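Working notes for the structural subgroup meeting. M.R. asked for a predicted model of this chain before we commit to crystallization trials. I am recording the input and output together here so anyone reviewing the notebook later can reproduce the run.

Input as submitted:
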Amino acid sequence: MASLKTELNSLAVQRDSLLKHIDTLQNDALPATISKLLGDLQLNIPLTGQPLRMSPVSGQCATLDELLARLTAVCGKCGLTLTKNQGIALLLLLAPAATLIRNIAAAMGWERSFAHQISAEQRPMVALRPVDATPVLLLTSLPNYAPISGMHKLLLSRSSIGLTRNAAYDAGQWPILPLPALPFIPELPADDAAPISQAALTALLDATSVAKTSDEEITAVLSPIFAMVSPLSGAARAEMYRFIRVAAALMEGGLPVALDFAILLWVVPMVDRTSRNFADFKALLDEYPLSQAKL
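Returned structure, recorded in token form:
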């Protein structure tokens, strides 16, 4: 099975080289004709704009400890020290800075299925996914870009204001993971380790699907905090509650720490965007030091 995956990944490299040549031809000669031919071949290349290709490769499953080992190692090389809980939060969310994210993707074997979108003219395109495919990660600074189904969209901004003061955030509030001031981060060479599959990340959620903490218990604890902010969308609240249930089972400190991270990720950005007096809200956060320190 391992040799078959290696062969598939080698063929994927050859395919990507051919597609890159096709992109050049499309931009330089007979774009309409080429687009029609590609449409007949079902390669789905856009008529306009610059294709931004992501090509998942076959990956392998990994335990939480193995994922954390790769994550903390590459972050250490980038000058960023992560605690176990911060690493778990990052794995559950897949979020922060461009070169850091690219280095994490490379360390996980996700470099070929990762792309950084820097302009609206770039059109993300995802190749056919093999068995046990690696995650598809799009890093972008365009909040209104609607990602392709099955893609992880990671928004990057120097401040939360750039991520929250727009119509897209109003429609569905996404979690925002703050990072400390980062040092200069060099682009690290791709790691020789075997790629990690999307299934390994999904397993983090599935392994704790029968969690002890119910939605009713979470709501009872957080209701005074929810009363101080605008309502979360149904999808955002469901995502937040799932994060709490999983993180409570995985993080050191259990439910109180998971709640603190969830408030930091979902609720604090909503309070921060209002630009009002935070005193009343901060008074509710005595048991949540990460969230209180952010305001």
